[in-house]
Every structure is written in structure tokens, then in C-alpha cells.
Amino acid sequence: MPALAVVLGLFGLLIGSFLNVVIWRVPRKESIVRPPSHCPSCDTEISPRDNVPVLSWLLLRGRCRHCGASISARYPLVELATGGLFAALTVRFGLHADLPAYLYLAAVGVALAMIDLDLQRLPDPLTLPSYPVGLTLLAIAALADHDGTDYLRAVIAMAALFGFYAVVWFVYPGGMGQGDVKLAGVVGLYLGWLGWGQLIVGTFGAFLLGAVVGIGLMVGSAAGRKTRIPFGPFMLLGVLIGIYAGHPLAHAYTTRITH
After folding, report:
1. CA separation for the pair 155, 250 (Å, rounded)
2. How many CB atoms lie within 10 A of CB 181?
């Protein structure tokens, strides 16, 4: 298993490099295929030797080889984050049929989180296709397990969380965007596959993190009461909480109230 985690972690670095393109181009409605990656300052195409995840940025000391323009440290950080998530999810799920579904979620989640932080948007070209992709990948996992119970729960959770966020948005549209509502169904699908406890913990965790960060920003005068704070990253962090701590937290809570 450690060897597999390393291999998929390295693969995640490559995916992270591609995600940097997605993060920049998708909100601008540009092709993610053409033109090839190029320096935004001098427009020179980036050669393969300068496009190795993390390593190229370190060797070039964060600057373009041709014009010397500074290259943001966010590029290697996105690559490292994606690689780390791929490795961590491999350790969590192992060689199970649902691993590809969660690797996809990690990749699209990194892109969505960064775009939301930048522009306070969750683009439809990333959120909406995640429904058929997630449903298909988890259906394959359900067929491999010869058990549709988890899949049925995941579909119900998808609809339930989408409906919950839709009601919140309808009641208080200023506190949540339509993109959050669209992402909610995807979050519900993946948390619901794991269990009801994971769904509840992951959902509550997102709102708790959002509240803590929002209060912290207001206390530090970095934000006011009417400042819009992107909620997508908190929703995605809530998924990680549900994946890694959802079961033990839900079990601890139910054990406490029943004794």
C-alpha cells in the first residue's frame, strides 16, 4: 500500500500541474488544451523540462527561464496539494473500486477551491459534469461490490444535501451562491456513499469552519459583516472531515447520547 500511495501521489503531482491550467483558463472560458502552457509575461511556450511539477519551479527559483518574470509559488503548492491528496486518499481507501471516484473528487475539488478563492465562483463546467462522473464511478464501485446499498444511500444523500442548500439559498440568498448549491449535490453524493454519519459530520464541519474563519476575519478587521466569503473551499474541507473523521465522530456522538 505505501508503494501505491507513492505512485499515485506522483501521479497527483502531474494532475496538479494540469489543474493549474484549469484554474486559470476555465473561469476565462479558454480552452484547456490549446494553446500549450506559456509564460503569461513573455508568452513563450513552456518547454517540457520547465514543466516538471514542483521540481522545475525549484530549479528555476520561481522565475521564467526566458524573461525572468516571477512565477507564483501557488503553482507548486497546487501540485503538492493534489499529490498529497492522491496519496492520502490511496491510504484511506486502498485498492478498492471506489478509489478512482475519490481521486476525481480530489482533483476537481482543488480546482474549484482555488477558483472560488480567486473569483468567488464555482464554474458550471466543473461542478455539473461532476454529477455524471461521480454517479458513474460510484456505480462501477457498487457493481464491483455486488451491493447497491451504499449507492442508493449516496443518491439519496445527493438529493437531500442539494435540497438543503437550495432552501438555505432561497431563504438567505446573500449568504450563499448558486454555485454552492450545485456543488452541494456532489458533496452529498460522496459523503453519502460512506454513510449517514459522514454526511452529517462533513456538512456540519463545513458550516463550522466557515463560521470560525468568518468570525476570525471580522475580529481581525479583514472582513466586515457584509463581506462575501467563498464557501466552496469549506464545503470541500468538510468532505475531508467526513472522509477521515466522520465515522468516529458520529459513533462517539451516538454512543454518548445513548448512554
Report:
1. 20
2. 21
DSSP state of 225: T
Contact 159, 188 (CB under 8 A): yes
- pLDDT tens, 102-150? 999 999 999 999 999 999 999 999 999 999 999 999 999 999 999 899 9
Alpha-carbon distance of 174 to 254, in angstroms, equals 34
Q: Which three cell numbers stand for residue 143?
A: 457493481
pTM of the model: 0.93
Nearest to 166 by CA among 190, 149, 183: 183
Which distant-in-sequence residues (6+ apart) come within 8 Å of 213 by Cβ? 229, 234
- pLDDT single digits (tens) 66-104: 888 888 899 999 999 999 999 999 999 999 999 999 999
CB 25 within 8 A of CB 33: no
> In 10 A of CB 135, how many CB atoms?
17
Give Cβ neighbours of residue 20 (< 8 Å, ≥ 6 apart): 75, 78, 79
pLDDT at residue 104 in the model: 98
* Cell numbers found for residue 75: 503553482
Residue 155 near residue 136, CB atoms below 8 Å: no
Three-state DSSP state, 220: coil
Distance CA 68, CA 142 (A): 51
